[in-house]
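Final report, Chapter 2: Outcomes

The project's central promise was a pipeline that accepts a single protein chain and returns its three-dimensional structure in a standardized token representation, suitable for archiving and comparison. That pipeline is now operational. To close this chapter, we reproduce one record exactly as it appears in the project archive, with the input sequence first and the structure output second.
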Amino acid sequence: MCKNPQVDNEDPAAAELMARVAATVSRQAAAVSGNVYEVILRDIPELHDDKAVLSLLASSVDSNVGTCLQMMQHQIELSAVRAPSASLEYARRRAQRGTPLTALLRAYRLGHTCFSDWVLRELARQTSDVALLTATMLAMSRIVAGYVDQTSEEIVAACTRERENWLRNRSAARAARIRDLLSGQRVNVTATEATLGYRLHQYHVSLVCWAGDATAGVDNITRLEHAIGHVAEKAGCSADPVFLPGTNPARGPGCHSAPGTRSTPRRPARAAWTTTSISPSAARPRTPPGFASPTSRPSRPRPSRSPRNRRRRVRSRSARSHRWR
């Protein structure tokens, strides 16, 4: 912390005044928490979409406001404080729902500003001594900023761990559902669609792709997912693709070799299997101009319509009808 030589940051009078201010604000803790809660929901729409965790957000705000006030009132060292359980659990729930981490960190910045407004207004009401007010304000700012910084780090760690676990479990569940589908066994369509987030009763296109760089696995997965989304968009697919990361597509779904053949691609460093929906018109193969369709048969020359050919066809039909009598 940068110290101003004109101000004594360790002034006992400043510590006493800070304790009085914290005690006064503590009697309005419910109003402070409610104000912080309203500001967060007003300014961050991503946190307002899930009513199931709003009560957990309120508990998190209450816990953070109460902890900051107790630190200022009782001179509690920052090293003895940890992030509230409600705050950590809220971060985990948000990670499970795919909420951006930036939204959570912004909530702490907004809460920091709103909380500081309350304590600084109360500080201005309790003293008019400029030097004492400045020393107390610096002490309060140091405590609140340190708490927000430390708690944010714990929130980031909890959110990251939960996100990784959730993605790992979701990928495992998706892989199991996809294996069941490809094996041809009976599946629960409703449960499978819920797990995959993908409708089954439609046309499908599957794709295997990989990146050759083995050193940046996470970046490669992100690149593959973006590339697959781009391909699906260009193909006119009506739904988001199902993306399944893997490490060896030669053994993964959609990349089995037929009997008596040999798999020609070398084993890539990072691969993914995906499938997506496609419209019926797009599902039909298109023949490039100047090429014959691979499914078309060579056309037979049409017989001549001369009288001689007509007599041959009549005699042939007569002979066939005679044989079946």
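Archive annotation: Residues 4-9, 249-271, 278-299, 319-325 have pLDDT under 50 and may be disordered.
This record, like all others produced under the grant, will remain available to the consortium after the project formally closes.
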